[in-house]
């Protein structure tokens, strides 16, 4: 959800009992009356819902304890089993494995006890308790807004495996789990590398495993490689090269040497702005190149020719910050699957579409089309097997890029979207990169992946300590 704005008006009229007069004054004029329950919302959020309701001739009233059957139309946040979710019950799931809370938004008609599922979502539970509760509230409000506006997603399939999640539950106290996670972030850094498997993609999907991976050597000293995308028609592989300490990512090309080791052969894109996730698509005689640039309005579609500077075609999302933008063609349209960082860092899937690469690029009617920490964020190239279209997505519940889920796209039009999970690919716990897997790109008979391991980072710990010390000294310094 974009940053919430309030108009400064009095919020008291949004609470259930004090809305009676407004309801009586407008009920005869065709206005819709909706009561929202299940999670107590802040005044700022209630103000936003009020404004959205005014745009759609809907009076929104918030009554935390309202339950069906109820006098007005009722929108309630529930668990997938139908139990109401309140701030207290949600708080109990903070920082508890498997670090995800699936929920649904349900509509009950006036005086009805029959639920109509309007939307589903899966929200991560890690981070500070304040951040977590704020995220739940934000998503709940987003679902209610979309229900009022008629852009809700319906009873879609979530990427999270609820049976698998239940089996992974931990009884470790949440506060201790949070403290362990905080210290882990201070002591360890991520080291990524790219690898190649010759296991056919059809076998990977059926087995739910990548098979043996030929990992490229990882540089412990200066940088790492991630986000592999093969450059069609060449012997090159495009990757993100990210400095271990400071700096921003850039896009480089790798080529195999005489011994079969893929080494950096050229720099493709380096502008002193962060670039990663170098998605490429062969489009007739030209190659389209869509790298990630999460600065606002920075996502640019290029034409790429070997040994030449990328040629800009168009800016695809002015005013938006897109992560992992994935270009593909489907039903005579060009599509971009992405995560909108302003809506959420890891838990949403959005689509843009256009009739031609030059645009104009339009957002899908139901933006975002999916809210799910366990598979929404793109994780590599969209690919076909026969007539079937498949989309890799990231599971970021336990950690960023923990695993890749492969979805089959059942329906995709400018107004509709449905997909289902066909495989989950976890990193090899006995391999050199056992802690993450967040990109899968298919190139004919080859499949490229990347992998993560956590490494103790003494230099990083010193920098973090010095930064904290500087902040403390700055706070303690008396005003001149």
Can you describe what's shown?
The chain is of the alpha+beta class and 480 residues long. The protein is built from eight helices and 26 strands. It has helices spanning 20-26, 43-55, 87-91, 129-149, 162-167, 174-187, 201-207, 458-476; strands at 32-37, 58-62, 73-79, 100-108, 115-124, 188-197, 214-215, 223-230, 237-243, 250-256, 262-269, 276-283, 286-292, 300-304, 311-315, 322-330, 333-340, 348-354, 362-363, 370-371, 383-385, 388-395, 403-412, 417-425, 440-443, 446-456. The strands form six sheets. It has a five-stranded mixed beta sheet. Strands 16, 17, 18, 19 and 20 form a five-stranded antiparallel beta sheet that branches. A four-stranded antiparallel beta sheet has the order 7-6-26-25. A hairpin with a 4-residue loop joins strand 23 and strand 24 (417-425). It is globular, with a radius of gyration of 24 Å. The two termini are 41 Å apart. Mean pLDDT is 89; it is low at 1-28.
